[in-house]
């Protein structure tokens, strides 16, 4: 009995020391957050008018006001940026274009009469549906309102006139006030 | 095993013939009982030393000799599963001699769980246990599904395959799961983390309501679920069992097989394998896309059990992959609103076995070594070392990132050491004392590209307990116990500098700050919690028919990793969830009562309970955070005072040997006392009724089960609004995530045929239909209720072969 108890204590001791050795911890490394979008930027171009760029940036919560002229056609380009690390700004738009089948840019206007058209420089998905990364906006009468900008991930359909119709998940939804003069 | 039944009666018959016709006619009779629960022992051999006179006990434990000569005799009582007992008696007249045997000494299972406190519950209602037949029935499902059949247990689900047991309205860290004598450490803090354990590896599941299993921890006010493996039989034998299930819903099935080899010198070796696969499940009207599941488990054990000492080495590995309903993956609260407004999921794809993101993958490995030694008749000690490695990965639908990279990748390793000393003194006093040391290491893989939801940490726990039981007679017992634990956290976590300042942690915990990396701050919280648990209970049996017990439990729980540190977006409800460093330990006082009556064909139990919890930790909405995906509700862990009460009740009535009717019901009331509102996710009143017919020779039976769940009218209001843009107008819309779904009823049917492939082991074929009437329903405790109906009808065939 004495002998076997001795062995038991040795086993116990061995296991306890294993337990203690197995515990040491390195400092964790900071995580480089991927697939993050922090900034939405819209650029408006129209012949004879100075280019206009507006931004919505995470954290600032205030978007710039878009000023457009009445009865004018604008070529509008949207880009998505990851500016979480100011020293390494990433353009997410390229990813969106590469995965055109899984994405859709969508604009909704409130209290404004702007008609949306396809731009020849837009990216098309494999079924020739426009992604609306580049689009044509035709303004009519003067007024003020809002545009809501969406980036939709994995929409169920690529052609809808309402946000609900696309389904999928919302990656971006930001509002910009618009003034048409 | 088989042998015993034939050979002993044979010897007995032979012996009877050889008894010489002396002038001896003293009658000696008695009963052989189990030392632990006083149950009669069948098949014990009683012999008189120095003569060839022997007999065997009948099923009621009775034995008798009727032609014994007067004089000094030595009686020997032996049983294959027990220590033998000898007693010297001077016989001069007809005598009654009763013996008690330590029946459990060879059964490792009992040795592990037969601590005194649990023992006192053994005699109580049938509700507190699941036997192997009941477990087998749920072979293709989960632990929580099997437990759900017990009154007072509900299931908190995320879809059909992620199911957590809930006892008296509590789940997660408030419910302990104990397997093979050690707490399961599987990131139980998450509401959408199912226990990583395969119920096929166990033969007995015991539910301990209240925190009375102090040996395993004192921090589970909900209760403890104790899973035990099959009993050992110390004979040369080889036996096994295979269960095959085939289901129509999900077009899948499961196979589970186990084999056990035992030898008469105490060695045993067993192995178990089970696997299952299901494709997309089906609601009554549509396919639940991406709800497939794959699971594979193996376990092996080798041990030797001698009468006075024994050891066992046990290894098991559990692996699963669970698809999460595709339509439930949302980007923001407008998406959530759209899903709520739609009657059917927003995405329904054709049936497939493929499991895509969102999904969960888990691997749980468990290594266990145990050794016990009965130092003397009265003292036994046991040593357990357990190592568990739990790896959990969650995959989200992501952009520009390979589908093989998870969004959450956590590895939790736990070392658990338990030394237990058990002794008994005269006057039926039993004591148990032990120390329990736990070291836990959590590692969050940084390669996910997503902020860590749970940080890296080391947690040390040192606990000690002392429990005792006094059972002077079979009809009265009193037990009590205390446990004290010291928990120490050493955490390394990155906070967004803005969050750290906004929560005033900079002012409260300046010592934790380590280093700033851009807009991230590395902090090293060191937290200590000292917890105390205590319990006491009395059990009284009043006559043959009526028994009652009263238990008081004090439990204290230190906050878990999620409550302290969680940090990020929860995709299933589009909420930002944050832990709180300021949380204090949760203190629960609970009183449980049990009344059982068993009279003839009637069996009834009534179990009311009441508890009061101070510093009850919960998560609730605190504000809105504006992000590029729109406004998100922010939910933060906080504490309140809460009160719970409820009743579990059950009635079994046998109309005849063949026909029986069971009814179970439970009700839980839970209130947040500070905010004067009901607590969230509390099971509504529910009841199940079972009508069962068993054929006279038990060749077949059939069962009709009706489940009824009412509308939960007590719920906190957690709604918020979102502005949507429709037809050129921006309007505020209410997102109702609070109102529970309506009541429902579903009917299951079960038909089984029994036969013997070999003698003494029953095999069966069953035909099972769940949700027979294709009831379309949503359950309040299923987090997928916002997105889709629960699963529809399922036809299932089950084969159980025992050999």
Characterise this structure.
The complex is a heterodimer of chains A (181) and B (803). Chain A is α+β, with helices and mostly antiparallel strands and 181 residues long. Chain A contains 3 helices and 10 strands, in the order αβββββαββββαβ. By secondary structure, chain B is mainly β. The two termini of chain B are 13 Å apart. In chain B, the strands form 7 sheets. Chain B has a 22-stranded antiparallel beta barrel. Chain B is globular. Chain B has 9 helices and 46 strands. Chains A and B meet through helix 1, helix 2, strand 6, strand 9 and strand 10 of A and helix 6, strand 23, strand 25, strand 26 and strand 28 of B.
What is the gist of this entry?
With 181 residues, chain A is of the alpha+beta class. Helices cover 17% and strands 41% of the residues of chain A.
Low-confidence stretches of chain A: none
User: What portion of the residues of chain A fall into strands of 2 or more residues?
Assistant: 35-45%
As an assembly, this protein is heterodimer
- The percent of residues in helical segments of chain A reads 10-25%
pLDDT < 50 runs, ≥5 residues of chain B: 1-22, 104-127
Mean pLDDT of chain A: 85
Gross morphology of chain B is: globular
Question: Overall 3D geometry of chain A?
Answer: elongated
Measured on Cα atoms, how large is the radius of gyration of chain B? 29 Å
Structural class based on helices, strands and sheet pairing of chain B: mainly beta
* Helix percent band of chain B: under 10%
Measured between the Cα atoms of the first and last residue of chain A, the distance is 100 Å
Distance between the termini of chain B: 13 Å
Radius of gyration of chain A: 27 Å
- Give a quick account of the main beta sheet of chain A: strands, pairing sense, barrel closure: 6 strands, antiparallel
Report the biggest beta sheet of chain B as strand number plus sense, adding barrel if it closes: 22 strands, antiparallel, barrel
Structural class of chain A: alpha+beta
Number of DSSP E strands of chain A: 10
Q: List the total number of helices of chain B.
A: 9
Question: Greatest interface and its residue counts?
Answer: A-B, 60 and 58 residues
């Amino acid at each position: 009995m004495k002998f076997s108890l001795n062995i038991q204590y040795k086993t116990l001791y061995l296991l306890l020391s294993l337990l203690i050795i197995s515990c040491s911890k390195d400092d964790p490394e900071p995580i480089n957050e991927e697939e993050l979008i922090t900034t939405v930027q819209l650029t408006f171009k129209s012949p004879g008018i100075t280019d206009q760029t507006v931004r919505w940036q995470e954290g600032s919560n205030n978007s710039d006001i878009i000023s457009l002229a009445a009865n004018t056609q604008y070529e509008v380009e949207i880009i998505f940026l990851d500016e979480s690390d100011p020293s390494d700004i990433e353009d997410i738009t390229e990813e969106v274009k590469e995965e055109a089948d899984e994405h859709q840019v969508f604009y909704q206007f409130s209290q404004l009469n702007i008609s949306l058209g396809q731009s020849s420089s837009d990216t098309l998905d494999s079924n020739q549906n426009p992604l609306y990364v580049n689009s044509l906006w035709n303004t009519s009468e003067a007024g003020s309102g809002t545009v809501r900008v969406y980036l939709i991930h994995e929409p169920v359909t690529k052609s809808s006139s309402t946000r609900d119709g696309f389904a999928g998940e919302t990656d971006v939804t930001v509002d910009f006030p618009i003034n048409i003069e | 095993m088989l042998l015993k039944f034939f050979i002993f009666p044979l010897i007995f018959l032979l012996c009877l013939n050889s008894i010489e016709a002396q002038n001896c006619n003293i009658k000696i009779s008695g009963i052989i009982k189990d030392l632990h629960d006083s149950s009669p022992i069948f098949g014990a051999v009683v012999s008189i030393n120095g003569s060839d006179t022997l007999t065997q006990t009948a099923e009621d434990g009775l034995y008798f000799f009727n032609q014994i000569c007067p004089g000094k005799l030595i009686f020997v009582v032996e049983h294959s599963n027990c220590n033998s007992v000898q007693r010297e008696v001077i016989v001069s007249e007809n005598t009654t001699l009763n013996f008690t045997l330590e029946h459990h000494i060879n059964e490792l299972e009992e040795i592990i769980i037969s601590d005194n406190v649990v023992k006192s519950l053994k005699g109580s209602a049938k509700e507190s246990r699941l036997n192997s037949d009941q477990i087998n029935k749920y072979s293709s499902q989960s632990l929580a599904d099997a437990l759900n059949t017990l009154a007072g247990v509900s299931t908190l689900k995320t879809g059909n395959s992620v199911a957590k047991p809930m006892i008296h309205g509590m789940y997660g860290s408030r419910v302990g799961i104990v397997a093979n004598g050690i707490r399961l450490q599987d990131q139980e803090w998450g509401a959408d983390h199912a226990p990583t354990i395969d119920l096929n590896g166990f033969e007995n599941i015991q539910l301990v309501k209240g925190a009375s299993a102090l040996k395993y921890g004192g921090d589970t006010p909900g209760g403890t679920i104790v899973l035990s493996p099959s009993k050992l039989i110390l004979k040369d034998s080889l036996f096994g069992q295979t269960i095959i299930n085939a289901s129509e819903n999900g077009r899948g099935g499961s196979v589970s097989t186990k084999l056990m080899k035992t030898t008469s010198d105490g060695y045993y070796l067993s192995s178990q394998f089970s696997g299952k696969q299901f494709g997309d499940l089906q609601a009554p009207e549509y396919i639940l896309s991406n709800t497939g599941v794959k699971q594979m488990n193996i376990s092996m054990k080798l041990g030797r059990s001698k009468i006075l000492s024994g050891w066992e080495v046990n290894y098991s590995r559990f692996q699963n992959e669970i698809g999460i309903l595709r339509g439930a993956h949302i980007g923001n609260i407008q998406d959530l609103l759209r899903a709520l407004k739609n009657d059917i999921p927003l995405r329904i794809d054709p049936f497939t076995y493929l499991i895509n993101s969102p999904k969960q993958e888990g691997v749980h490995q468990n290594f266990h070594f145990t050794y016990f030694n009965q130092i003397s008749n009265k003292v036994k000690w046991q040593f357990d070392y357990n190592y568990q490695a739990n790896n959990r990965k969650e995959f989200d639908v992501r952009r520009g990132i390979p589908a093989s990279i998870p969004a959450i990748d956590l590895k939790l390793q736990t070392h658990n050491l338990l030394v237990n000393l058990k002794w008994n003194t005269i006057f039926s006093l039993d004591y148990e004392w032990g120390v329990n040391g736990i070291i836990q290491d959590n590692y969050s893989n940084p390669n996910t590209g997503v902020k860590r939801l749970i940080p890296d940490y080391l947690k040390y726990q040192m606990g000690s307990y002392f429990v005792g039981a006094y059972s002077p007679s079979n009809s009265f017992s009193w037990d009590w116990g205390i446990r004290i634990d010291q928990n120490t956290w050493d955490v390394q976590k990155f906070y967004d500098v803005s969050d750290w300042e906004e929560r005033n942690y900079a002012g409260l915990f300046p010592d934790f700050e380590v280093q700033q990396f851009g807009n991230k701050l590395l902090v090293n919280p060191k937290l200590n919690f000292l917890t105390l648990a205590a319990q006491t209970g009395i059990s009284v049996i009043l006559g043959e028919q009526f028994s009652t017990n009263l238990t008081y439990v004090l439990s204290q729980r230190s906050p878990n990793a999620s409550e302290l540190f969680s940090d990020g977006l929860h995709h299933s409800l589009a909420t930002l969830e944050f832990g709180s460093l300021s949380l204090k330990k949760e203190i629960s006082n609970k009183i449980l009562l049990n009344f059982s009556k068993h009279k003839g064909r009637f069996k009834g139990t009534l179990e009311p309970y009441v508890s009061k919890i101070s510093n009850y930790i919960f998560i609730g909405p605190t504000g809105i955070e504006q992000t590029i995906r729109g406004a998100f509700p922010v939910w933060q862990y906080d504490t309140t005072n809460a009160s719970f009460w409820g009743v579990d009740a059950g009635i079994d009535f046998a109309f005849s040997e063949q026909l029986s009717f069971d009814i179970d019901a439970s009700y839980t009331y839970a209130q947040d006392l500070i905010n004067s509102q009901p607590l969230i996710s509390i099971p509504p009143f529910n009841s199940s009724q079972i009508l069962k017919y068993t054929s006279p020779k038990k060749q077949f039976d059939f069962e009709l089960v009706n489940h009824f769940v009412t509308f939960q009218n007590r719920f906190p209001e957690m709604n918020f609004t979102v502005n949507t843009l429709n037809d050129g107008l921006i309007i505020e819309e209410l997102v109702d995530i609070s109102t529970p779904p309506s009541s429902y009823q579903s009917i299951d049917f079960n038909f089984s045929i029994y036969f013997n492939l070999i003698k003494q082991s029953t095999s069966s074929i069953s035909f099972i239909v769940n949700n027979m009437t294709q009831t379309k329903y949503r359950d309040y405790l299923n987090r997928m209720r916002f997105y889709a109906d629960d699963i529809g009808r399922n036809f299932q065939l089950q084969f159980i072969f025992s050999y």
